[in-house]
Amino acid sequence: MSRVLVPCHVKGSVALQVGDVRTSQGRPGVLVIDVTFPSVAPFELQEITFKNYYTAFLSIRVRQYTSAHTPAKWVTCLRDYCLMPDPHSEEGAQEYVSLFKYQSPSVTFPKWLSHPVPCEQPALLREGLPDPSRVSSEVQQMWALTEMIRASHTSARIGRFDVSNRFLLLGLLCPEQIRPDGLLYFRWMAVMT
Amino acid sequence: MLQEESDLSLIIAQIVQKLKGSNLYSQLERQAWASLQRPEIKLESLKEDIKEFFKISGWEKKLQNAVYSELSVFPLPSHPAAPPEHLKEPLVYMRKAQGSWEKRILKSLNSMCTELSIPLARKRPVGEQKELLNKWNEMGTDEPDLSLFRPVYAPKDFLEVLINLRNPNYENGDSLSFRTHLGLIQVPLKVKDIPELKECFVELGLNIGQLGIDDSTQVPPELFENEHVRIGQKVLAQQDSAAAQQYIRQGSPTALRAELWALILNISSQPEDVLYYEQLKTNVIQHDLLVDSLIYKDVKLTASNDDYYFVFEDYLYQVLLCFSRDTSVLSHFAFNSASPPKSYIRGKLGLEEYAVFYPPNGVIPFHGFSMYVAPLCFLYHEPSKLYQIFREMYVRFFFRLHSISSHPSGIVSLCLLFETLLQTYLPQLFYHLREIGAQPLRISFKWMVRAFSGYLATDQLLLLWDRILGYNSLEILAVLAAAVFAFRAVNLMEVTSLAAAEAVLADLSTLKVMPLLQIFLFATVT
User: Fold this and answer.
1) Per-residue pLDDT tens digits for B176-197
2) Of B140, B110, B174, B133, which is closest to residue B342 (Cα–Cα)?
3) What contacts 24+ positions apart, CB below 8 Å, involve B25-32?
4) Window 155-174 of A, Cβ < 8 Å to B
5) What is the pLDDT of residues B7-29, one digit of tens each?
6) Beta carbons of B77 and A111 less than 8 Å apart
7) In 3-state terms, what secondary structure has residue B420?
8) Closest residue of chain B to A98, computed from CA coordinates
9) Which residues of B touch A (CB under 8 A)?
10) Is-contact B329 B359, C-beta < 8 A?
């Protein structure tokens, strides 16, 4: 079974921000990159290879077209996959990463961060105290939001606390300020909603 | 799991590849052929019988030691998409910084060359060669005029480069925030804290015997020392590198140290090694390099002036001059963020066929470089063995102390570890020193770059280097530096200037290394 590169079109990254406020403070911590495949022929994806540049967690969603009649649905392949064990330090910041969709016996490369079959993993609800590092990361996000709000000087209600649970749970972290034009080289990639 | 199996097979393949080119491989082959004569080797069970023979005769152990050595030195195979630079140093900005630093060094070397109109290399006339050969064992008596030479760089120049290292993706702003580092190093590398260090250096704990503490005159030797020496002799008899490395974490008895270090570094003096050294010596006799003068100057300035090491001056020349010409050192640049300087034959600038590495081993000595060799002279008196030990120590440890990399044992991580430990566990002291303009790293940097050689008493230094070998890491240097500051904290709190702080920490020769480390790691109330 030979493996070939699948031609794909990687769009520029888009930052997810709350509201329309554009300010240099409070950089967004979540970026989305769309990847589309121009070829119409169906293929079986085996491996994704990319070079990381300061992304801490990665989620991958795929929109699958099953047939002409049913609408395409989004499937989560990977959720919050950790690329940087400590996002505030350099570990894993510029590493080359390979993700395998399936465990293939023909694979001979070592040390890959492989992940099993795509399946919708239900969100884990932790009981008891929340994880302190997650809380501190969310506090940072909140701080960033408050900075943005303060800078915008608007008296209108933002509805800050009306953010959906799903968004908060996904809590993607990028350390410090990631520039949206940062060098995130992907051959195939992640789509987040 | 399938993944781990394929990881393992690649590592095995890589090690086999490396060892196939080595001396050990041909020796094993010869032994296998010779063993066919033996009565216990039968044709039906040839493979098993030969394996059994290797086990009994000790050759399997030698192979094990060689494999262990490869695993300790060479990094694991990386992603196939990763270019070779990635193995040298994964972070792009650090590679760039190292590249510009190297350019500066070369510029300095070249300008010295043109100023003094001395060629980088020249062939010695026959008369001069004869003279040098006669004087080989007493090169220290030579007093060449070195006044015009100056060291290419000193540790403090290197420190300035490290202070200016910045990660372009890391914004900490101009104002003080929770993200600015209060120390001099501003890159966010991951360093261990004391709980992690305690786990890592568990054999230095309070309830475990240590040489350097439990062998003092007040402690009866039956409690620890005698047993420890006995175990050491057993380890040496077994000739097992891994066991020796584990054993030496508690220190090495003086009588066994030379053999233990040779076992851990997997150095055995074969006739081929002696021959190789003699060949290097011939190269020294035949050609004169500019770096030779730099080495002379360095030895004269540092080791010759040191009370403990001046007697070894001649050995230092014999080792360092040969080291500059040893092209086998070039192989370590595969995992060193530095690259050997390239020079072109006169008139052929830019043509790759006429490119040579200068010096042949790719390492330009800096001020204090000879101090890496000096302590080893206490252990080894035979020049070729001394040379091999030094070379192995260099390609395992010392190169990390003067190149910019993100490796946990690299000098940048050591500096950050030192500053973080001091800031976390002695915040008052750190703040006070910072306020008076005496950033602690400015004082401790020179200790770490030289691995404390020339600052500690020699027996203490050798106990420290025992642990470097035992843990295969240089992090202990940063811990010791912090421990020294902790020890002299009371005096340091009273000083009011950088000069006074340096005076407090000028003399470390009375310090006992192991109690300091033990107290700092295991007995300090945080």
Assistant:
1) 565 567 889 999 999 999 999 9
2) B110
3) B27/B59, B28/B54, B28/B59, B28/B63, B31/B57, B31/B59
4) none
5) 778 788 888 888 888 888 888 88
6) yes
7) helix
8) B79
9) 2-3, 6-11, 76-82, 86, 90-92, 167, 169-172, 179, 187-190, 406
10) no
Range of the structural domain that residue B10 is part of: 1-76
Q: What is the pLDDT of residue B178?
A: 59
Contact between B498 and B437 (Cβ < 8 Å): yes
Instruction: Provide the token pair at B160.
Output: 């300035």
Range of weakest confidence among A79-83, A129-133, B315-319, B334-338: A129-133
What predicted TM-score, i.e. pTM, was given to this entire model? Answer: 0.83
Determine the residue of chain B that is closest to A97 in CA distance: B79
Q: How far is A36 from chain B (nearest CA, A)?
A: 23
Sequential DSSP letters for B445-491: HHHHHTTTTTTS-HHHHHHHHHHHHHHT-SHHHHHHHHHHHHHTHHH
Regions of chain B where pLDDT drops below 70: 1-6, 172-180, 346, 525-526
What does the DSSP assignment read for A157-170?
---GGG--HHHHHH
Within a domain: residue B104? no
> Does a structural domain hold residue B378?
no
Number of domains, chain B = 1
* A109 to B80: CB separation less than 8 angstroms, yes or no: yes
- Complex ipTM, two decimals? 0.83
A86 near B CB under 8 A: yes
Q: Do B79 and A176 touch (CB under 8 A)?
A: no
Q: Helix crossing, B46-57 with B23-35: angle to 10°?
A: 120
Record: contact B190-A54, CB cut-off 8 A = no
Is pLDDT at A181 greater than 50 in this prediction? no
Does any domain span residue B299?
A: no
* Inter-chain CB proximity A91 and B190 less than 8 Å: yes
Q: What is the mean pLDDT of residues A107-127?
A: 38
Q: How far apart are CA A39 and CA B213, in angstroms?
A: 71
**Mean pLDDT value of segment A90-110:** 65
CB contacts of B167 in chain A (<8 Å) are 90
Please report residues of B whose CB lies closer than 8 A to that of A178. Answer: 169
B71 lies in a domain? Answer: yes
Nearest CB to B188; choose among A90, A97, A110: A90
pLDDT for the residue numbered B95 = 95
Confidence label for A124 from pLDDT (cuts 50, 70 and 90): very low
What average pLDDT score do residues A116-139 get? 58
Across the interface, of B3, B169, B171, the residue whose CB is closest to A112 is B3
